[in-house]
Amino acid sequence: MRLILLGAPGAGKGTQANFIKEKFNIPQISTGDMLRAAVKAGTPLGIEAKKVMDAGGLVSDDIIIGLVKDRLKQQDCANGYLFDGFPRTIPQADAMKEAGVAIDFVLEIDVPDSAIIERMSGRRVHPTSGRTYHVAFNPPKVEGKDDVTGEELIQRDDDKEETVRKRLSVYHDQTEVLVDYYNKWAASGQPGAPKYRKIEGVGPVETIRDRAFAALAE
Ligand code: AP5
Ligand code: ZN
């Protein structure tokens, strides 16, 4: 299974990726998680990326494409992969097409902007694994602790309301065009064209999971 999860910031890509990667036994390639790891490690890339991420902008296509191409060389991608938060621009999508990176499904999770701010303000993450919770909608078993490791959960630096609004506008300006891009490719009937599936992303986390699994079974 090789798929792209498409959706606005806070649509639940990371939350659903967690279920999908386990079901299909594939790695989750989250460019956001990779960048946050670089920020934490204090690498030159991390230092540069942090400024852009905290402002709610996008890191340059060349950097992201390079990161993903390197990641795809690793052995665990042989069985498939799940892209979370990538591609995010037409040049990123084109680069994957040109490199012959196969995609079986594009799964769009649709959530209106009005629901996003509330989700982000209550989000808590386990920085090492990228596991994501919400204080009200998807709470951890023990308050403030990761379910698996028991380690502290944190708030992301880019979850401030002002930054979230900026990220949403960047999504509408630069990423939403990919809905059309992949729909057209899917409808083209070309060899290797992916299937396009769209699910409603509002509702209990488990309901969305069931919708995602059903969409990927068709
Ligand atoms: P990235 O980490 O990709 O952030 P994002 O796309 O903005 O998405 P999020 O991680 O914020 O949301 P999500 O859809 O994963 O939602 P989640 O499951 O956590 O990117 C961060 C930054 O890195 C970017 O701004 C950019 O600067 C840079 N970057 C990354 N990739 C890049 C690229 N390809 N090119 C250029 N720059 C790049 O859920 C959100 C919250 O809602 C959680 O609290 C969760 O518990 C809760 N929730 C989930 N599902 C539900 C539900 N059904 N009901 C209620 N609450 C729910
Ligand atoms: Zn995410």
Provide the descriptors you would attach to this structure in a database record.
single chain, 218 residues, alpha/beta, five-stranded parallel sheet, 9 helices, binds BIS(adenosine)-5'-pentaphosphate, binds zinc ion
Order of helices and strands: EHEHHHEHEHEEHHEH
Shape: globular
Structural class: alpha/beta
Strand order of the largest sheet: 2-3-1-4-7
Number of helices: 9
| Distance, first to last CA | 13 Å
Strand content: 5-15%
Biggest beta sheet attributes: 5 strands, parallel
Radius of gyration, CA atoms, in whole angstroms: 17 Å
- Number-wise, the strands total 7
- Average pLDDT confidence is 96
Helix content: 40-55%
Small-molecule binders here are: BIS(adenosine)-5'-pentaphosphate, zinc ion
Give a description of the structure.
The protein is an alpha/beta fold. It has helices at residues 13-24, 31-41, 44-54, 61-72, 90-98, 113-121, 161-175, 177-188, 205-217; strands at 2-6, 28-30, 81-84, 105-110, 123-125, 132-134, 195-200. Strands 2-3-1-4-7 form a five-stranded parallel beta sheet, sandwiched between helices. Strands 5-6 form a two-stranded antiparallel ribbon. A hairpin with a 6-residue loop joins β5 (123-125) and β6. α2 packs across α3 and α6 (113-121) crosses α7. It is globular and about 50 Å long. 32% of the residues are buried. The model has no long low-confidence stretch (mean pLDDT 96). The protein binds BIS(adenosine)-5'-pentaphosphate and zinc ion.
